[in-house]
Amino acid sequence: MKKRILSLALAVLMLLCVVPFSTYASAAESSAYKQCYNAIVSGLKQCKSLIDIEKYGFTMEVIEPMYEEIRWNEPMLFHITGWFTAYHYVDTGKITELEPEYSMDAANYNVAVDFVNQEIEKILDSMPYGLPKIEQALYLHDYICANYEYDLSYTYYDIYNLLARKTAVCM
């Protein structure tokens, strides 16, 4: 009898641990998720102070991991800090707007994006023409090793600071 109760308790605990993830996982496969993701990315690229996502109807259990996914998958959004305020309906918990936190304003961000693109172009232009893909990867690896340092202060985590300061922590 004790084994059955323990087994049931363990099964309930495992189910409770999986429920939030499965909500996020099923939402992540929907077209509304993709549209919301793109709306947030677009708003972040424009340095909007408020990003309206009300029409997608997601709660924090979806928006929070989505925002983290954006931070990992969109390296040119190096100006977001990772923090945001979410405004929502009290009764449903559905998020209406996001208020992102930026490390630089729109004008400085646009200058920084141009700088990053120019630096990437310089690096790619320095690569010998006609290398096979594996040789291109090795060239870029060697270039990074020769020209950049690991940030032992753990201060810089993005492509802009890597290219501007020649140091960063890998993400």
Report on the structure:
With 171 residues, this protein is of the alpha+beta class. 58% of the residues lie in helices and 13% in strands. It contains 6 helices and 5 strands, in the order ααβαββααβαβ. The strands form 2 sheets. A 3-stranded antiparallel β-sheet has the order 1-3-2. A two-stranded parallel ribbon has the order 4-5. A hairpin with a 6-residue loop joins strand 2 and strand 3 (95-102). Helix 1 crosses helix 3 and helix 4 packs across helix 6. The termini are far apart. Residues 6-13 have low confidence and may be disordered.
Keywords:
single chain; 171 residues; three-stranded antiparallel β-sheet
* Measured distance between first and last alpha carbons: 49 Å
The 3D shape can be described as elongated
Number of strands: 5
Low-pLDDT parts are 6-13
- Annotation field: number of helices: 6
Evaluate the radius of gyration.
21 Å
User: Taking strands numbered 1, 2, ... along the chain, how are they ordered across the largest sheet?
Assistant: 1-3-2
Mean of residue pLDDT values: 87
Percent strand equals: 5-15%
Structural class: alpha+beta
Largest sheet: 3 strands, antiparallel
Oligomer: single chain
H/E topology pattern: HHEHEEHHEHE
Helix content: 55-70%
List the helices and strands and how they pair.
Blueprint: H1 2-28, H2 31-45, E1 51-52, H3 60-73, E2 80-88, E3 95-102, H4 106-126, H5 133-147, E4 149-150, H6 159-165, E5 167-168
Parallel strand pairs: 4-5
Antiparallel strand pairs: 1-3, 2-3
Helix pairs in contact: 1-3, 4-6
